[in-house]
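Researcher: Sequence of Cation acetate symporter follows. Predict its structure.
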Amino acid sequence: MTGAGILLQSDLLPQGMDVSFKLAPAVLVLGMLAIFLLIGFVFRVADTEDMWVAGRSIGNIENGMAIGANWMSAASYLGMAALIALSGFYGLAFVVGWTTGYFILLIFMAAQMRRFGKYTAPDFVGDRFNSDTARGIAAVTAFLIAFVYAIGQARGMALVGLYIFGDIGFAGLSGYQAMVIVMMTITVLYLTLSGMMGATKNMAVQYVILIGAFLAGMYVVGWTQGYSTVLPQIEYGMLISELGAEFSEPFATASPYLWIATCFSLVVGTCGLPHVLVRFYTVENERTARWSTVTGLFFILLLYLGAPAYTAFGVRLFDVNPNTATTYAAEGGMSAATADVLVVVAAQFANLPQWFVGFVAAGGIAAAIATTAGLFITGSSAVSHDIYVNLINEDATQRQQILVGRLGIVALGVLTTLAALDPAAPIGALVSYAFSLAGSVLFPMFFLGLWWENTNRQGALAGMLTGLTIWFIPMINEVLPTYIGNGEPYVAALAQWLPAIGSALVGVPVVFAVTIIVSVMTDEPSLKTKKMVRQCHSPEPMGQQQSAEDVVTDGGEPLDD
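Model: Prediction complete. C-alpha cells:
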C-alpha cells in the first residue's frame, strides 16, 4: 500500500476540535449508554419473533420514531452537514434522494411488504421467487449492506467520542482507533442482549435524544451568532453570499450527471435497504405500516430541513475561527474529518457551554448506535434465519437460532471495527456505497416481486447477479485504489459514467430489463406464488401474525432450485 493510499490518523483528527476529556459531556454520554443497556435488558429477546420482528406488536408513533432513529444515522446527523459543507449544492442530492425514497416506500411497498408478512428481506426474496439460491444471494447482500453501511457509523461515533473522552489511545492505537473499538464494543454488547424488541424500544428513546440535540444545537448556534431569529431552516440564506461559490453555483463541484446519479441511487437504495424494510414487518398491520411511514418521514424531515442551515452556520464559524482560518488556510480549507463532526464543532466554535456541546455530541452517538442496531439485527438475521435455518439446519431450535444470530452480530461488529480503523471515505460516501448496492440488487426484486406476478426464479437470479456485478465494478475501480494504488480511479472514464456513489442509475434499469426479459423467456411462477402476490394487494384484512402464504390455501409447496 502506498503512502498516498493511506488515510493517516492525523488526517482523521478534526481541525480545531478540542480533543480532551470533558467531565460533564462524558457523564452525559455514559448515562445515555447506560439507559440504552438497561432498556435492552428489560426488553431482551425471549424468542425469534422478538429477536427479528419485535413480535409484530409495534404501533404507529413508536414505529415512526424507530424509523426516524433507524434512518437518521451518523450519515444524516453528522454526514449530511458534512457533505453539504464539502461539496455545496451537490450535497443537496442527499437531502432529496434520502427523502424521496420514502414516498415510493409509502405508495408502492410498505403495506404490501407487511401483508407478505415474513421476518426479513431475504425471506421475501426466497419465498416470493421459490429459490434457496435467491435467498442466499439476498442474505449475503443484506450482510454486505450492513457491513458497508456500519463503517460510516463507527467512524462517526469515534470522531464524536474524541471530543468527549479525548485521546485515549492504548495498546499502540491512536485515540481515533481506540474510540472505534470502545464504541463498537458497547454497541455489540447491547445488541446481542436486546434483539429487535429491545432495539426498537431503544430507537424511540434514541430518536428523542438525537432530534432534540440536533434542533437545540441548530437553534442555539443560529441565535447566539446572529444568523437567525425564528426559522433557521429559511434564514440561513443570508449567509450564502459569504460562503464559497459551491454553495450558490449548482454544479461548481460536481457535474449534473453525478448529481442525478447520486440522487437516483439514494432514492432506489432507500427502497432496497433491508434494515428499512424490516420496520414494516414489526408493525401490527398494513394500515400501521403506511401511517408509520408517514410519521417516520415527518420525524426525518425535522432533521433534514435543518441540515443545510447547520452547514451554513458551521462553515461560516469555521471560516472566521482564528484556530482554523490561520492554521489550515494553506491546506485547502476544511478537511473531511472536520466536516464529519461539523455539527459538534460548530457548537464549540460558537463558544457554547461545554455541557451543551456534549449534548449535541451525544445526539450524534445516539444516531449512530440506533442505525447500527438496525443494520446489525438485519445482517445477523440474514446469517441466522435466512442462511442457517433455511439453508443449513431447518430443524434448528429457537435457542440455536438466537445463538447464531448473536454470533452474526459479533462477526459484523468485528469486521466493521477493523474496516473503520482506516476508512476509505467520509461518512456520507461510505453509506452511499451501501445504497447503490441495495438499489441495484434488492430494490428491483422487491418492486417486481410485489407488482408483477410473472416475475420468476430465473429472472430474479439473473437480475440479482447482474446487479451485484454492476455494483462491484465501480467499487473496484474507485474504492480499491484507496488501499492499493495512488487513490485515483484505475479508469477515469468509468468513474465518470459509473460512479461508485451513484452506480444504481445504470444498474437499476439494466437489472429491471434483465429480470423482465429472462422471466418472459422462461416458465411462469406457480399459481400459489401468483396468489401470494395478489394477496399482497387484497383489501381483505389479515391477522397480526398471518402472512400471504398462510392465506393461500391451494396446498402447493414452493419449488426449490
